[in-house]
Description:
The complex is a heterodimer. Chain A contains six helices and five strands, in the order αββαβαααββα. Chain A is mainly alpha-helical.
Amino acid sequence: xxxxxxxxxxxxxxxxxxxxxxxxxxxxxxxxxxxxxxxxxxxxxxxxxxxxxxxxxxxxxxxxxxxxxxxxxxxxxxxxxxxxxxxxxxxxxxxxxxxxxxxxxxxxxxxxxxxxxxxxxxxxxxxxxxxxxxxxxxxxxxxxxxxxxxxxxxxxxxxxxxxxxxxxxxxxxxxxxxxxxxxxxxx
Amino acid sequence: xxxxxxxxxxxxxxxxxxxxxxxxxxxxxxxxxxxxxxxxxxxxxxxxxxxxxxxxxxxxxxxxxxxxxxxxxxxxxxxxxxxxxxxxxxxxxxxxxxxxxxxxxxxxxxxxxxxxxxxxxxxxxxxxxxxxxxxxxxxxxxxxxxxxxxxxxxxxxxxxxxxxxxxxxxxxxxxxxxxxxxxxxxxxxxxxxxxxxxxxxxxxxxxxxxxxxxxxxxxxxxxxxxxxxxxxxxxxxxxxxxxxxxxxxxxxxxxxxxxxxxxxxxxxxxxxxxxxxxxxxxxxxxxxxxxxxxxxxxxxxxxxxxxxxxxxxxxxxxxxxxxxxxxxxxxxxxxxxxxxxxxxxxxxxxxxxxxxxxxxxxxxxxxxxxxxxxxxxxxxxxxxxxxxxxxxxxxxxxxxxxxxxxxxxxxxxxxxxxxxxxxxxxxxxxxxxxxxxxxxxxxxxxxxxxxxxxxxxxxxxxxxxxxxxxxxxxxxxxxxxxxxxxxxxxxxxxxxxxxxxxxxxxxxxxxxxxxxxxxxxxxxxxxxxxxxxxxxxxxxxxxxxxxxxxxxxxxxxxxxxxxxxxxxxx
Lengths: 187, 570
């Protein structure tokens, strides 16, 4: 083995230079041409950054469309899922509490109509999206809070809905932050 | 829901469409034939010259293994030292601390062996310097090590009787310059244009629309996320890996990442067939592996798509199994990823496996227990080769002929090695799980920093699954986890560290040794009495051997974990 050690050391140093220095620098340089300059795409309101398009944030107020439950309360410096198994009694209790809370905030909604994603924690704790159905079910509450007609909110959701990739691949989704920014502009 | 299944089918078709031509290309690269990347020749000659490598020196299998172990030894020391002192090194805008010695031990081994089990969280436990110089670097070189090891197998069966099996450093270098690095650059650019960060800026502080102050972790992640998939490594930049919306921003990147991790393992199977000029054998192996993949994929897909029984029980109409999953990815693409990432030893995740349905959890574990359906970079085919040799031996006994594979007699010595390797993987998993279960059951309050009683995020059978999964993932060098387990403590860092390193090198040395020994033997031309190994019948035989060994070894453990949980929950 001894005769291979020295070439190994030299090859290692060379590869560190190529793979850990040149390669990431190249990608960072190319990234400058990408949207957000490779730093992550931000969204602004009146010139002030209010968040990252791809990083979900906490919406708990009734006047906003709420996102999904998060195991880390949308801490974008420490992502995590709940890692709860379905047989865990604590988990079953948590889900029931989320349902009760949702019903309390959304009078008139029937329990069985609540979409699953609104009572289950996301994988990252930072899920930026909800499905169109999960937005629609909140329309009544927001219309009442903001005194807006429901059909305008429904149109807004339709406008903000991302179709599946190429029309057939993957789920439909609505970015909650974008939706709420657009919601704030409705008069 | 209607657009989810087509997305998955489309993903598999694209994977196959890329893997086949890539296989032709990889065969040529390893043979040293002319390819479109020949403009790299001068660069490679330069590398050999400054490193003092003679590219024309042919090695036998022992020299190959000596070179492989030497360079791996250099890497593990290098990685361990950097992780231990990372807070004193540059590129640490977030001010993250040094790793503790046990965590650095675990992490250095984990990335060295292509496992990428992570007992730290990317946002708070590692610096940008370590992410690049340790993690990204090892992701490239550990993948190239796997390719270089399987190349020995290729060479052993390409010629009639030979001891000259190519040069380890040449295989290794070409795997990086001509396969991994070019593909990584393409993929990283796709990611960065879809929203994955690539700049060196540290955390950003913002005030959200609702008025909360939050910090957002970032970093030069795109390059690392590319190689983590292409190299079947799987370690995430962020804590939640590819479930994180910056690591995997949309459905297109999700497809790209899941395609990227499967193409090279699949391409290597085709490359094997082309290299040894027995294409049909390559196709039969591919067929068996695909059948194995479907055996796990179909039950996992059905159980995930049929929803979460807790929500059914409460009475929701939409009871989709969304716990631990992301809306932009959806249930079907998450289930597809869960199975793929466990059969091919990547171990990156786009959903939290700990929260998947019990039966799909069982399929994930079985994927790692068999560990050869497509399999990891290089090592998947090496594992498969062990089962192939066992199948040859058993078939030989059944029909009353001397077992032969590709014109060489399979004799006692090779069979002993094959049997040891086949039993070693279950041995590591079950002994590890038994040990941890012993402490959890008999010494739950032992005076450790983290007591065994507080290891688990879930009680009962699911808690057992968390331990079983952790050791299965370690031994299979997979790296995914039931992440509820509290694993950053001395017991888990050391025990999984030891299992990872044994689970890497023994299953590489064993099959390479068999190939080397067989290659040296006298070549017997095929005759009417030869057992044909490139037939469907023999493929079914191999499949049966794999499944029977897995069932005998693991069924009891799986019964205590996910299978029991399934019957409790439904």
